[in-house]
Structures are given as C-alpha cells and as structure tokens.
Amino acid sequence: MIEIKGLYKTFGSKEILNDINLTFEGGKTNLIIGQSGSGKTVLMKCAVGLENPSKGEILYSGRPFTHASLEEKMSIRKEIGMVFQGGALFDSMTVEENVAFPLRMFTKMPKSELEDRVNFCLNRVNLPQAHAKFPAEISGGMKKRVAIARAIALNPKYLFFDEPNSGLDPKTSLVIDALIQEITEEYNTVTVVNTHDMNSVLEIGDHIAFIYQGKLIWTGDSKSIVDAQIPEVRDFVFASPLMKKIFKSG
Amino acid sequence: MNFFENFGRYCLLVFRTFKQPGRNKFFREQFFKELEALGLGSIGIIAIISLFMGAVIAIQMAANIDNPLIPRETIGYATRESVFLEFSSTVVALILAGKVGSSIASEIGTMRVTEQIDALEIMGVNSAGYLILPKITASLVINPILTLMSMFLGVFGGYLACMLTGMLDTSSYLTGLLFDFRPFNVVYSIIKSIVFAFIITSISAYRGYYVEGGSREVGENSTKAVVNASIAILFWNLILTRILLL
Predict the structure, then answer these.
(1) What's the rounded Cα separation, in Å, for the pair B204 and B164?
(2) A106/B124 touch (CB, cutoff 8 Å), yes or no
(3) Cβ contact (<8 Å) for A88 and B124?
(4) Which residues of B touch A (CB under 8 A)?
(5) What is the pLDDT of residues A11-23, one digit of tens each?
(6) How far is the CA of B216 from the CAs of A153, A213, B113, in angstroms?
(7) Chain A residue with minimal CA distance to B113?
(8) Residue B27: closest CA among chain A residues belongs to which residue?
(9) Nearest to residue B100, comparing CAs of B200, B240, B223, B232?
(10) In chain A, fewer beta carbons within 10 Å around the N or the C end?
(11) Residues of A whose CB is below 8 A from B118
C-alpha cells in the first residue's frame, strides 16, 4: 500500500499540488487522471522521489519515504518499477540488456538463470523475438512493452506508469492496458497509472483519483466516474463528442 | 543560476559521484568502454595535431633564429620545450575539452531529457556514480598516455620538418632535442594532464547531468561544457605552472 498524506508542492511561488491525500492499494490499478498541467505528473514524481514535496509525507507499506535518508530511499526504490512516458530504455543497450540491467545490478543470479528471467519477462509482454534489437530499431509500442518487461524483472511491489498510452494507436493502447491489468492482478502489485486516456480510465480504472489544478477533487472507480456530478470531472470524461453519444444512447 | 550556485551544485555532484560507485562488475565494463571512447577515439586527432604542431613550431623557430651567435641546435631545444611544457598538456587538453567534453555533455544530457537518468534513479542506482565515475577514471588513466604520445609525435613532427625542408640537418635537431633535458618537465606535463582530465570530464558531466528541456538545451549545455572546461583549464594551467615551476 502507498499512502500520500497532506502533500504540497510548489515551484517558486506557483502551487502545483495542494493537500493531496490518497491511498493506493495492492492488486488494483490506481489511476491518477486530470487535464494536462493539472499536476498529476508532479504527483507521480513526488511519489517515486524524483521531486521533493514541499510538505507532506509518502509511506510505502508504512515506511516513510519522503524524509528518508538516501540509503533508505534507494532500498525502497529497489521495490519500485516504473515505466516512463517514452520508455526511457537505455539506448546503448539491446532490448535483452535493458531487461537484464536491474537483475545484473541487484542480484547475483547465474547467467543461465538471468537469461531465463529475461526470456520470461520478454515473453510475458509478448516480445519473444526482439532480444538483440536496440531501442532505436523498435516501435513505440514495443518500447513500452520492453520498459514493462524491465520494470517487472525484479518482481517489484510497486509499479508506476507515466502516460503508458501516449503516442500509441488505439489497438496497441488496449494491449498495454490489458498487460498492466494482468500484471497487477498476477503479482498483486500496487500499480499507479498516470493517464488522461479515457479508454484506459474505463478499461482498467479500479481506483481513480481526479486531480484538478493541483487539488484532489474526486475519487472513485471506472463505473462511478461516468455518473460523477462534479462539473470538472464531467467536462473531462465527456470532453469528446463520442463519449457524449455513447453515454446518451445508454 | 550564478557562479556560486553552479559551483556548489558541481561540488555536490562530484561528491555523489565518488560516494557510491556502484557494483564493480558494472564499473569495470563501463571503464573499459570509456577508455575506448575517450582514449582510442582521440588518438587520431591528437596524433595529427601533434605532428603538425611540432613541425610548425620547428619551422617558426628556424625562421626566427637567424642570429649567427645562436646555435642552430636551439631549434630542437626550443621545439622540445614548447611541446613538453605547454603544447602536449594544455593545448591537447583544450582540444580534448572540445571533442570529449561536448560528447560527454551531450551523451549525459540526452540521457537526462529522455528520462534514462530518472530510470536509473528509480531503480535505486546512483546515476552519478554509474555514469560519471567511469568517465572520470578512464580519462585520468588515458589522458597522461595521450600527453606522452603527443610529446613524442610533436618532437617527431619537428624532426620531419627538418628532414623534409632541409632548414636544419636532423643530427643538429636531435642534438638540440637532447640538450639540457629535464625529466621533471615531463612529470609537470603529466600532472597537468591529470588535473585537466578531471576538469574536462567532471565539468562536462555536470553540464549534461543538469540539462532541463529538450535537444536545444542539450546543445546549449554541450557548448557551455566546452567553454567552462576551457576556462578552467587555462586557470588551472596558470596555478599549476606557478606551483610546480617557480
């Protein structure tokens, strides 16, 4: 479980996050949604320690993270897997080396066991044939899948996805969404997904937090979001005419 | 950001680089990769520049020493002193600041803007130790070797100039070359090359590590890396010369 308590973040005089209180539970896909510039990326960066909150606390299974020492943070981070918007694959390494990187860095696995684990992770994301390719040689969707394979290599307890569907076609987005949900249920991870893709919201949103201008204004799930009465949430959910049509026709 | 803020952040980054070096296996792998990239990749340019500079220095000496009271062997002597004392350490370091410095800054800067450094941090890897330490250590090892190579090729360039132009017979050049040889001058040059190696790699890495923005900012910071490293080299050249030679 990840608990966010009274989180504030300011850049200079600009307030980005204002008193965020949230709990992300294991075995569920927890979505942070909101318009561009609402502060959801900053919230995720604070949660994983890439930004320091101005005020507040983040707890990983009861362990304080925000004010922990660098060593304690490093130790918690070894339990975190993160998939970045662009994949953030190491471009000087092959797909196989990218997935093997955390295993080689943090375990003393024998070579054969390491190869088995890499194969397992790549098969898990349906990429059994891409081992020797470099990130520049594969598509955006494949990059995301390699990034997921790398993120799950060490069996993380906490998985973060930053805009996993950005730049992907609708079909590939569905594949990525399905993968996120399957992995979450399979490994009982605390999965946090930062998105503004309504398809993802409706497909995999077990627990949804809506951020508006740095404030948490609504929480719920994929079923209740379409009935939310808060105007900002309705504006977001029914921003596209297609969504309006679908829900009007019942 | 003013000079003092930059300097403070630079010191903290250097401290972090050496604080947690990461696993030996990774360090060794990266170290040898960097030796190849920073060292072997620079041999060609250093060789060409050293040969030509040595030749030019010898020709300029020959053109300016026309007093019959000054022995012609002075050409070899002066060429050696110029090459050993200043050219092979300082000028080569300035060239490397351009070649290696911009490459380090743009490589690390690109990793920053494409979130590869964030990915390392999230995994619990000390990104500074993993990325920068092998570059610094490889540079500390390879730069003195490049400097020694440059010394040899510089005086050899002078020898070739004498041989090809006939401005001085090669035996006189060699006599001048060996006249009043002080081994400490080589040590002085090596010490400078080690300090310059640290300056080039650490400043360039700092500039790349803290890039914010996109490809434009990566380019800007690569330029800043070269400028900052060059100024630091000239400054430390003065300090070290004062300390070691006077």
Answers:
(1) 40
(2) yes
(3) no
(4) 22-23, 25-26, 114-116, 118-119, 121-126
(5) 988 899 999 999 9
(6) 34, 29, 11
(7) A88
(8) A105
(9) B200
(10) C
(11) 50, 84, 88
Measured N-to-C along each axis, helices B133-165 and B3-19 cross at an angle, to the nearest 10 degrees, of 100
Chain B residues in contact with A50 (beta carbon < 8 A)? 118, 121-122
Residue B21 clears pLDDT 70, i.e. is over it: no
In this structure, the strands spanning A29-33 and A190-195 are parallel
**Best residue in A72, A75, A82, A83 to probe B by mutation, most B CBs within 10 Å?**
A82
pLDDT in tens, B53-108: 999 999 999 998 888 888 989 999 999 999 999 999 999 999 999 999 999 999 99
Domain residue ranges of chain B, discontinuous segments joined by +? 3-245
Superfamily for domain range A2-79+158-248 = P-loop containing nucleotide triphosphate hydrolases (3.40.50.300)
DSSP percent split of chain B into helix, strand, coil, nearest 5: 85, 0, 15
Inter-chain contact A84–B25, Cβ cutoff 8 Å?
A: no
**Length, in residues, of chain A:** 250
Q: Nearest-CA neighbor of A11 among A66, A45, A54, A57?
A: A54
pLDDT, position A77 = 87
Q: For chain A, give every domain's residue range.
A: 2-79+158-248, 91-155
